[in-house]
Design a protein that fits this description.
By secondary structure, the protein is α+β, with helices and mostly antiparallel strands. A hairpin with a 2-residue loop joins strand 3 and strand 4. Strands 5-7-6 form a three-stranded antiparallel beta sheet. Helix 1 packs antiparallel against helix 4 and helix 3 packs across helix 4. About 40% of the residues lie in helices and about 20% in strands.
Length: about 150
């Protein structure tokens, strides 16, 4: 049915009701201070969507486990997949997958040394993503007196 969403997903900026059996019953736009999510501030020109790189950056930070991984790199240390897995008490394949998401998001950089892959924080890329996020938030969510 148009205007509804499945249980596993839906349009960005929509909130769904649920029937007693857990199925989605309807959707409605999520509004914040007179703004429909994803459409920019009311009365302002359209706002560009965040870049794919910024989305990947935010996705990298969206997991508590990946946040814990990032804490391991405090002070600019360089760690292997095995070291990260050991310190967090997780499997190497899980650590490798999570580290790959962090690298794709520009949070980490890697280098190969034989069979070992070493990771460290990509400071320049993190700063660039934070600048882009700040700029995006200023465009999409400026103080009310700006528009």
């Amino acid at each position: 049915m148009p205007g509804t969403r499945s249980r596993t997903g839906g349009a960005a900026g929509e909130r769904a009701g649920r029937a007693s059996d857990g199925t989605v019953t309807e959707t409605e736009p999520i509004t914040v201070a007179g703004t429909v999510a994803g459409t920019g501030p009311a009365g302002c020109a359209g706002v560009d969507q965040p870049s794919d790189k910024l989305r990947d950056f935010l996705k990298g930070l969206a997991s508590e486990q990946r946040q814990q991984m990032m804490e391991l790199f405090t002070g600019g240390v360089e760690l292997t997949v095995g070291t990260v897995a050991e310190r967090l008490g997780i499997g190497q394949s899980t650590a490798s997958q999570q580290l790959a998401l962090l690298r794709r998001g520009g949070l980490l950089t890697s280098r190969r040394d034989g069979k070992q892959v070493h990771y460290r924080v990509d400071v320049a890329a993190v700063e660039k993503s934070l600048d882009e996020l700040r700029d995006y938030l200023r465009r999409c969510c400026p103080p009310e007196d700006v528009c």
